[in-house]
Amino acid sequence: MCGIVGYIGGRSAWPIIVKGLQRLEYRGYDSAGIAVIDDGALRVNKCRGKVADLLNLVRSQPIGGTIGIGHTRWATHGEPNDVNAHPHVSMNGHFVVVHNGIIENYREIKARLAEKGYTFKSQTDTEVLANLIECLYIEQGLTAEQAIKAALRKVIGAYGLGIMCVDESGLLFGARKGSPLAVGVGEGEFFLASDATPIAEHTDKIIYLDDEQVVTLSRDGYYVSNLADDHLDPVISHIDFAVDNIDKGGYEHYMLKEIHEQPNSVADTMRGRVNPQTRTISLGGIADVLPRLVKARRIIIVACGTSYHAGLVGEYLFEQFARVNVEVEYASEFRYRDPIITPDDVIIAVSQSGETADTLAAIRMAKQKGALVLGICNVVGSSIARDTDAGIYTHAGPEIGVASTKAFTAQVTVLTMMAFLLGRKRGALSQERYEQLVESLLRVPDMIGRVLQDEAHIRDVSKAYQLAQNAIYLGRGYLYPVALEGALKLKEISYIHAEGYPAAEMKHGPIALIDNCMPVFVLAAHDMYYDKIVNNIQEVKARKGQVIAIVTRGDSEISKMADYVIEIPECDEALLPLVAVVPLQLISYDVAVMRGCNVDQPRNLAKSVTVE
Ligand code: G6P
User: Fold this and answer.
1) What pLDDT is stored for residue 229 in this prediction?
2) Cα separation of 509 and 506, whole Å?
3) Which of 609, 610, 611 for a ligand 1 pocket mutation test, highest count of atoms within 8 Å of Cβ?
């Protein structure tokens, strides 16, 4: 959701914070703002729009100061406008706050502060928090740190916070509960950020704060404590990606770069886990809990968005190869349904960011009920990664484009490795078949590379659909979740209404929509459903729908019926999702670019959804 950056050190804070916000802008981009303290004076600039709009606003005005905080917003309370943009300054100007998350009891707090004479400029919960801190600071004669802790003991909800106190301008405060916050540890300088991306170019030493921890940063060091005022000794981790990974690397958009990275990112996901010599899989992250996973009565995969679609692929994989009962649940539904969970169940949370509020809540609930909880996350040190009993990082590298691409293929790769390994351990897969599957999996990066070589043809196909208003995506078996993912990608970034369906369901409703204006993307690779999907294509053509078919290279039958075909290499049916999703990603990208949409920052969306 929102992105927070903070800096204290010997350098000018403003450019460091601006650069950091640009790195974090993928998290939220409806408004931006920065506060710095220069010579004891607080200077705040903020506006509706992007970081670029903020820069236009202050262009040519020199901004000094070596301590500051910044924010890029995804609105929760109050519409995106200049007043609601962060930072928020307390009524008497003592405190300035940037916030990611939601203070749930802000109405009660606001009413109590109003009784004491506090007035509010914005509609935000954050301004209420700034005033609460200030009220406690003044009324109780507390230090800034004590006032922050006292206020946080009174709030219910989630927060990642960056705070400065004008009277203690040599200190920068951070706090987290529910919303991520990390501290970059440099030489005589320190950084605060919602994730590692703004920190990586300054230092590789990072502290991921835990819930209800507060950090006080000075130019001399850091001090981490909890709300009960106990001093804590945090673990310093190392950022595991190079700064090049968070640049566009010559591509026009992050999304296109990330689509193209997939041959490498999928190989990275397998690295050290799939052994080409022995044709075996070993998953160190879950080695200790493997016996319990092998004996699981049921696997429940919980996730949101694209990660949910990866989870659906996982269901097909686990059921086919490990012969274990699987359910896939939207985390937001699962967490509130009081589901029946026993200690024989294994919950697998799938999440790129590792911060999705609903997924996090779902695993906490499942843990309380005694289930083994595993995580498949991309962001190292993220909340879900830390709150699970064990897990497997996807190692896809930072994903900046809001529409998830390489994270999806990495998640499916992890689920595939898990299913094959579990199948072997449960005796559901013969050694021979297991080795064959491992060999096929190792060929996937190359197959994705071959699909990418067809980019120009895919762009030509996309041209025909740039003016479409609706689209249907159809698939069966392993390709049904891919149809859902293709439709999600198109709607997310091109704003074309798109629906994914299991192909056989078309007759039960969507067929009514088909006419000569309706593009129907059909995933029709060689698999056990091939003949059936051919029939589905005929049903669409009989109603004059436009068919764009994703077929196995050399397919001659479908090319006679379809308006366009896009070929993918022949591969094992279970591995089709990893290959067949790639042309759909490219089509969404191309169509969105042709329609002039902001591909990397589509309207209303956020990369990391830290509120429910
Ligand atoms: C948001 C993002 C999606 C993502 C979903 C789940 O909606 O825009 O790309 O799939 O959240 O996020 P997660 O980080 O849990 O995978």
Assistant:
1) 95
2) 6
3) 609
